[in-house]
Amino acid sequence: MVRLRKTKTRVPINQVVSIYRGVDTERENWDVDFFIGANFSKGNTDELSIATSVNAERKTVKSRVLLRYASNVAESAGENAAEFVWLCYHQR
User: How far apart are CA 92 and CA 81, in angstroms?
Assistant: First the structure.
């Protein structure tokens, strides 16, 4: 059995999925990572590729939210050669 301090509630240990400490500010609930990269090559054909990604996770005592974004844009000889965008949202 696990006893929740403020509510004096008892929960069977086999029903506990995770334990997370509450925080004082909303900002402390978030964990965010950013990435940006570029590749440029010049020769017979000029090529440029730019990649970006953002991963954000918000954890609270009652919920988890996961946001992920990724994109990759490539240009070759002044023409848009490839474009990829991916966005994911998951809430538990």
Answer: 37
For residues 1 and 15, the answer to whether their CB atoms sit within 8 Å is no
Please list the residues that pair with 9 across neighbouring strands: 4
Q: Is the overall model pTM greater than 0.70, yes or no?
A: no
How far are the Cα atoms of 57, 58, 73 from residue 53, in angstroms, in the given order? 14, 17, 12
Q: How would you write the pLDDT of the chain (92 residues) with one tens digit per residue?
A: 555 566 667 778 888 777 777 778 888 889 999 999 999 998 888 899 999 999 999 988 778 899 999 999 999 887 887 788 888 888 77
Residues in Cβ contact with 3 at an 8 Å cutoff, skipping those fewer than 6 apart: 9, 10, 11
- Residue of 91, 20, 1 whose CA lies nearest to 60: 20
List the structure tokens of 50. 């730019």
